[in-house]
Amino acid sequence: MKSRIIGIKRRRWLIVMSFIICHLSFSIGARAQTDSVAVSDNLLRDLFISMPDSLLPTLSNNHRLDLVDYIESGMKAEVKNRFEGQSELLYLTDDSLSLQVSNGLTVDMLLLPLQEGAVVDSCSQVVCMVERFGTSPDNQECYVSLYSAKWHPVANAPLIPAAQQKLNRLKLSTKIKWRQLVIKEN
Questions:
Q1: Which is the most buried residue in 62, 92, 95, 185, by most CB within 10 A?
Q2: What does the alpha-carbon distance between residue 61 and residue 67 come to, in Å, rounded to a whole number?
Q3: Using 50, 70 and 90 to split pLDDT, how confident is the model at 5?
């Protein structure tokens, strides 16, 4: 009788351990698959959602998720931000977005391809983030930052010629000051 009870307990223990091992294996596999998708098949929507809160402190990860869900559902993509103001995702495509963070801040993002063979953080694209401060289009201060798909700052990216021209036109049209230059001057 005693050996039978021990056998039942042993079988239950094996079932529980098998379940735990199976669950962990699935979780690890799902995590690896998610990481590989984030690096190889970048959509700006996914990068926007995964953006660290420190780069855009007005909007939490949940706010960004809500904005993307609303716009993909055909609804007005507007949320109350951390400072009790309204933020609105104006448009979103696979490689660009425009976000009215507050009355005085607009953020535009572009996904720019790198030259063939060039890789930054295991990816062939960089995120160009343009922040425009001010309420008047004639008197806005603008900053451009380039980031890898893992949101690491990128100083110089070997962009394809068309992407470099787009970036140059952007600089000329908005009188952009590079964040690094502004920091060095102060």
A1: 92
A2: 10
A3: low
